[in-house]
Write a structure and sequence with these properties.
heterodimer, A: alpha/beta, 6-stranded mixed sheet, 3-stranded antiparallel sheet, 6 helices, 9 strands, globular, B: mainly alpha, 8 helices, 0% strand
Chain lengths: 227, 222
């Protein structure tokens, strides 16, 4: 099944997923999914637990190889070859509990040599955290960890941003601030694919809404972004 | 030393400095082994010198397993390893930094253990004692280079605590024998340890090179 964005004008693709299936043993997490992702748009993935949202993000990030089918990003590259241009945020913080937010970000920024990264302090300010907070991440609340995690992803200014449940553990106000931040990020012609169970939060930035069910695309609709 | 290697190493040392998980667990375990063996065998005189090398090496080997597992457990605790896999720095730098950090931790434990060992085993070294400063680091490097690699290999397994010693110990056996025999030769002064030292040196080069070459595959394995 091939799904093109409805009412979409032809434009350069950021990623293309062709007939992708992903098996874990005998369990099929993704079943022949085909999707084209345009540059500068925000795609919201919906679906119940186990629908395959996180697996699809990990396949796009190059962290999982598809069992069948093909994934290409940025005009034909395999995701594994372009990982440094992709930002991936999992529902786990992907940071060290023993380091402060700033130390964590400084460490990850230095893993992108030659890249014009945001400064750790600036990235933390962007997500609404105090860069001078002298506490290790283990002492942060869940919401603060989530924001620090987003700051980590934003550091190298990736062209494709993959966010797995970015609003979980966040209060409504913080989630709204995050949506506004993502809207600004998208305006820089960057692409966002995010999964969420809180569709109303992602609605203002959703250019397209993709619903997965049991590893298949159940629906693909155009959104009405307001931001 | 490459910049990325240095960055990984500083991060590992800083985390260990704050948590002291690896050094504390290793130190208590190794101390326990040394004390229990001394109580079980009542080592004195020449008998003490004969078994000392073996006890020291085995205590180090068993104690280091927990540290080696912890080194990678930290990376997968909050999926940090995935963030590192997304970065454009070579995995070999991360591996080498982990080996260096583990080498440092095990060496610190050995240094702290040494006086206790000398007291409990009434040891008087009859050979060239300075050669221990060559044998112990070479043997420790063999242990941590292999151990860090196999800990990474088994980290995604549910039974990793069990799997690591099962894979590591048979492969480490030649180095362990060389380390025990060289240490024994130095302590007793009976024979020349140079053959065992050469063997340890060769073992270190071969296994470190193979681990470095294969690590990228292990890092990105699903």
């Amino acid at each position: 099944m091939t799904l093109n964005p409805p009412e979409a004008a032809p434009s350069t693709l950021c990623a293309r997923v062709e007939e992708v299936s992903k098996l874990f043993g005998s369990f099929a997490a993704l079943r022949q999914i085909s999707v084209e992702i345009e540059i500068g748009r925000c795609y919201v993935l919906l679906g119940e637990n186990g629908a395959g949202k996180s697996t699809l993000l990990r396949v796009l990030a190059g962290l999982l190889h598809p069992s069948f089918g093909k994934v290409s990003v940025f005009g034909g590259q395999e995701p594994q070859q372009a990982r440094d241009r992709i930002g991936y945020m999992s529902h786990a913080p992907m940071l060290y509990d023993e380091l402060t937010g700033q130390e964590n970000l400084r460490y990850f920024a230095s893993l992108y040599p030659g890249r014009d990264c945001l400064s750790p302090a600036e990235a933390l300010r962007q997500v609404g955290l105090d860069p001078n907070l002298d506490r290790t991440l283990g002492q942060y609340s869940q919401g603060m960890r989530q924001r620090t995690s987003l700051a980590r992803v934003l550091l190298p200014a990736p062209e494709l941003l993959l966010l797995d449940e970015p609003f979980s553990n966040m209060d409504i106000e913080s989630a709204r601030q995050m949506v506004e931040l993502l809207a600004r990020f998208r305006q820089g012609n960057r692409t966002i694919v995010l999964t969420t169970h809180q569709r109303e939060l992602a609605w203002p930035i959703a250019d397209y809404v993709l619903t997965l069910h049991a590893g298949r695309v159940a629906s693909f609709e155009a959104g009405r972004p307001t931001l | 030393m490459s910049r990325a290697l240095w960055i990984h190493l500083v991060k590992d040392l800083r985390i260990e400095w704050r948590s002291r998980e690896a050094i504390n667990s290793m130190l208590f375990f190794a101390l326990l082994v040394v004390v229990l063996f001394s109580l079980a065998f009542d080592p004195r005189g020449s008998f003490s010198r004969q078994i000392a090398g073996g006890v020291l090496c085995v205590a180090t080997m068993f104690a280091s397993v927990s540290a080696l597992n912890q080194a990678w457990a930290r990376e997968i605790r909050h999926q940090v390893l995935d963030a590192q896999r997304m970065a454009p720095t070579p995995g070999s730098d991360m591996f080498l930094a982990k080996v260096l950090a583990n080498f440092l931790f095990v060496s610190i434990v050995q240094l702290l253990l040494a006086p206790v060992f000398l007291v409990f085993y009434n040891l008087q070294i009859l050979g060239d004692g300075w050669l221990l400063a060559l044998v112990l680091p070479l043997g420790t490097w063999a242990l941590v280079a292999n151990g860090t690699f196999f800990a990474a290999l088994s980290i995604r397994s549910r039974n990793r605590e069990l799997l690591l010693p099962l894979i590591l110990f048979p492969i480490f056996m030649p180095a362990l024998l060389a380390m025990v025999l060289a240490t024994g030769s130095i302590i007793t002064g009976d024979s020349d340890p140079s053959l065992w030292i050469k063997l340890l040196f060769g073992y270190d080069i071969i296994f470190t090179t193979v681990s470095l070459l294969l690590f990228e595959v292990v890092l990105h394995a699903e």
